[in-house]
Amino acid sequence: MRQKLRVAAYAICVRDGQVLLARSPAEDGTPEWVLPGGGMEHGEDPYDTVRREVLEETGYRIEVTGLLGVSSFRRPLPRRGLRRPVDHHSVRLLYAGRVTGGELTFETGGSTDMAAWHDLAAVPALVRVPLVDTGLDMWRERGGAGPDAHPRGAA
Prior knowledge:
155 residues, alpha+beta, 7-stranded mixed β-sheet, 7 strands, globular
């Protein structure tokens, strides 16, 4: 089985009780909310990756305010067409970010089709990837608690 390692960087940007998310189609085409971010290019610094990806997917420039944590996930991906199955390992760096400029715009021709601010209390009702919850949990554990933090599922 072919092995593939993907390193990516994502931002958790929270302001006024809302979190910034991007929307991406799942493998079956169903839209789901994701953290803005994505894969590192060879030789790219992770801080540069997260700033580039947030700008591409949301239109916002951010300041990285801290590393929240690292999430790792591994799963086999089935064979597609003539390709062999893949043992996929994803290492995701999760950063806290603060919007410093730009304006909300939607990515065209990329992996996402829109971005939006969502009330933290409404996140549990969204169709979202598990990394959204992982990132928000890390944010809360590392000082996000306060007026912008709500326990998962709380109103």
